[in-house]
Design brief:
Layout: H1 7-30, H2 35-55, H3 58-76, H4 83-106, H5 115-124, H6 145-148, H7 161-172, E1 176-184, H8 191-203, E2 206-212, H9 215-219, E3 226-233, H10 237-245, E4 250-257, H11 263-266, H12 281-285, H13 297-310, H14 319-345, H15 353-377, E5 378-380, H16 382-385, H17 388-399, E6 403-408, E7 413-415, H18 416-437, H19 441-446, E8 453-462, E9 465-472, H20 479-489, H21 494-499, H22 502-507, H23 530-539, E10 543-549, E11 553-561, E12 566-574, E13 577-582, E14 586-592, E15 597-600, E16 603-608, E17 611-617, H24 618-621, E18 634-641, E19 644-650, E20 652-660, E21 674-679, E22 685-689, H25 691-694
Parallel strand pairs: 6-8, 13-22, 17-19
Antiparallel strand pairs: 1-3, 1-4, 2-3, 5-7, 8-9, 9-11, 10-11, 12-13, 12-20, 14-18, 15-16, 16-17, 18-19, 21-22
Helix pairs in contact: 1-2, 1-4, 2-3, 3-4, 3-5, 4-5, 8-10, 14-15, 17-18, 18-23
């Protein structure tokens, strides 16, 4: 069987299961007695084992099988979760991550058998203080052969009054009633599917009165390797057993004929409530209409159709298909802009109300289509941040500091292209908080702070931006220390340092290879971190700033655009050329008289509503001649970056327009003030100015 076609699905689902295991094992560390958590881990390990076996990845299958064994014993109460087991389980997850990475890169899991890890897992199976003694075999004298091998488990199935009535009626009608125990092979991957085929085979010959475990539990794979059924049929036992054994991956099927005086019937009164019996045609015939329905045959089919109607609400879509869809929407918007331009710029054209109406309708549809495609591309940042609790746990052990990570807003959505890129910057900031930010236990005690350091990651939407805040309640940034380090490295002179504000000094931390760590560790200290954060965030059209208080902590604030593909822009003219400025950056538009321009330290500024705002003459920055006359009032777009404002002087305003950002690639990579280009309605190309870089 060629399974390569399923590789992408396998990788996607494996990562989901691994992340789920990461989260649940962290929960287990906090609450080792939580049965729901144990069951969730068991199910995830079991699913991974099945998927790996289906794909032929034997090493992965073996490791997850042993993890499943451990949690099977935990569920049974044989062993308890200990702290050293949590460390072993996390090592298992790292090994599974390694297998997954190898499979993604080479379609092969590699050659690492992880024997030492598997031995540690198997050691966990030994109960505390247990002596490795071989238990004396239980006497089988006087029992039928089936009972000695576990085949008579059906004899302990409890029956209620309705089922006993059915059983008696069947015997009176001359039908056979068999108790059968079926065992699936240990290597079986899809136990529930095999059980379903067994049920189907038996129902060809008769009716299933009841099963143990219940039909629902069997469907949910909540059983080990065997299950038992009571069958009413006209066929001989050998024929029923032969049909069951014909199902692949069934190791054994054993049974015997039952009568009304069978142990199962006698025990009915003692444990009625435990059974989840099946409704049969025979039950209807005998008037036992109230017997609950089993999840087999027609009932199972009905459940499946209901599930399809309600549950099947999502589909997996290849990212490339979404990119193609976005490009097509982009082209549609460009075509719409062209149509609008063609119908409004022709001189002497008579207005056609019908055409204008249709164009307006087209604009509404394209805007709605764009919004819908954007929503499809939006994914929660949860996929990135849910790996951080594990990272902080590992750092806590490595740095020997007690710390706790609190996260909010994981459901906040961002464009998929942005989410893919923000993982590394956020990881750097969190490691920075853990290593540099939080003080040692002794210092925290002296300052009257809690023993456990607090690190937080908060995300929320703010207009057309998403804000992500990463911070801690640690030491904060020592501005004097940063200043001295900068002077020592020759980054600034002592004279320059005297005139620098605290914010300017803190901004030095974003320079490449700048670090205040006294020694290099494998966590940090190489000066690779904050420069990576800044460059990556700015590449995404965002910005990063820091707020800090010495002795109280720091907060790093990342502001990101919701999307990088289609934006609302302010269209302007400078020197006869058209330019676009993202509307997110623009706060107000001002009409400024030349006499209102003042000089501060030889730089042009304007005084506007209590703020002194520096002017940036775009014609000078872009090296083109302005078309504005000297004595004319200036059109100034006030733009904002964090808490900084600047006024961009333009020649003309063209208005607001929805534009499609086209990357310039490597053709124009010398100037950072141009962040891309867009195609206008008349076919002209307009460059997009990056207000952040200009400021």
């Amino acid at each position: 069987m060629d399974v390569s076609q399923y590789l992408e699905i396998f990788l996607d689902e494996t990562r989901e299961h691994l992340q789920n295991l990461n989260t649940e094992i962290l929960n287990l560390e906090q609450d080792p007695e939580n049965e729901d958590t144990v069951n969730e881990i068991f199910r995830a390990a079991h699913s991974l084992k099945g998927m790996a076996g289906t794909m032929g990845y034997k090493r992965m299958q073996t490791l997850t099988h042993d993890m499943e064994n451990v949690f099977s014993e935990v569920r049974n109460g044989t062993i308890k979760i200990k702290s050293h087991m949590i460390d072993i389980l996390f090592q298992c997850l790292d090994a599974l991550e390694e297998y997954t990475t190898n499979i993604q890169e080479n379609s092969d899991e590699g050659t690492n058998d992880n024997e030492a890890l598997i031995k540690l897992l198997n050691d966990c199976l030994k109960p505390d203080g247990a002596q490795e003694e071989t238990p004396a075999p239980e006497s089988t004298a006087g029992k039928p052969a089936a009972a000695a091998s576990g085949g008579s488990k059906w004899s302990s199935i409890p029956l209620d009054e309705a089922q006993k009535l059915v059983l008696g009626e069947a015997v009176k009608q001359g039908k056979k009633v068999y108790g059968i125990t079926v065992k699936v092979q240990e290597s079986c991957i899809l136990k529930a599917a095999r059980a379903f085929l067994v049920f189907k085979a038996v129902e060809e010959l008769g009716e299933i009165l009841v099963s143990a475990p219940s039909a629902q539990d069997i469907e949910d794979e909540k059983f080990e390797l065997d299950f038992s059924i009571i069958v009413i049929t006209d066929s001989p036992l050998d024929r029923v057993l032969a049909d069951i054994k014909s199902v692949s991956e069934i190791e054994e099927a054993e049974g015997a004929e039952m009568t009304e005086s069978s142990p199962a019937a006698e025990k009915a009164e003692k444990s009625k409530e435990k059974s989840v019996p099946a409704k049969t045609e025979t039950a209807k015939a005998s008037g036992a209409e109230n017997a609950p329905a089993a999840k087999t045959g027609a009932a199972k089919q009905e459940k499946k159709s209901n599930t399809k109607a309600v549950g099947n609400r999502t589909v997996r879509v290849d990212i490339e298909k979404l990119d193609v869809l976005m490009n097509l929407v982009s082209e549609l918007i460009i075509a719409k802009n062209s149509l609008v331009s063609a119908t409004t710029t022709q001189e002497g054209r008579e207005s056609n109300a019908a055409v204008d109406s249709q164009i307006e309708y087209l604009e509404n549809v394209t805007t709605s289509l764009h919004e819908s495609v954007m929503k499809v591309r939006m994914v929660p940042i949860e996929s990135v941040v849910n790996k951080f609790p594990r990272m902080i746990r590992d750092l806590s052990k490595k740095l020997d500091k007690k710390m706790d990570l609190q996260m909010t807003g994981e459901e906040t959505e961002l464009d998929r292209t942005v989410v893919d890129e923000i993982g590394d910057p956020l990881m750097h900031l969190l490691r920075n908080s853990a290593d540099h930010g939080l003080e040692s236990a002794e210092v925290r005690a002296e300052r009257g702070k809690p023993e456990v350091g607090s690190i937080f990651l908060n995300a929320y939407q703010d207009g057309n931006n998403v804000i992500i805040e990463v911070g801690d309640d640690g030491n904060g940034i020592d501005v004097e220390n940063v200043k001295n380090k900068a002077i020592e490295r020759g980054t600034v002179t002592p004279e320059q340092a005297l005139n620098m504000t605290d914010k300017e000094i803190i901004d030095l931390l974003f320079l490449p290879s700048f670090s205040t760590a006294k020694e290099v560790t494998d966590v940090s200290g190489r000066g690779v971190g904050l420069d990576v954060v800044k460059s990556k965030i700015e590449t995404l059209g965002g910005e990063v700033e820091v707020k800090t208080q010495l002795g109280e902590g720091s907060t790093w604030i990342i502001r990101l655009p919701l999307t990088l593909a289609i934006i609302q822009a302010l269209m302007v003219e400078v020197g006869g050329e058209k330019y676009a400025i993202s509307l997110n950056s623009v706060t107000t538009l001002e009409n400024i008289a030349p006499s209102d321009v003042k000089l501060v330290q030889s730089e042009e500024v304007i005084h506007l509503r209590g703020s002194v705002i520096p002017l940036i003459r775009l014609n000078e920055v872009l090296d083109i001649e302005s078309t504005r006359k000297e004595n004319e009032n200036m059109i100034v777009a006030i733009v904002k970056k964090g808490d900084k404002l600047a006024g961009l002087v333009v020649d003309k305003l063209m208005g607001q327009q929805e534009i499609v950002i086209k990357s310039l690639g490597k053709f124009v990579d010398k100037t950072r003030i141009i962040s891309g280009a867009t195609i206008l309605g008349d076919g002209e190309v307009a460059l997009i100015l990056d207000a952040n870089v200009l400021i």
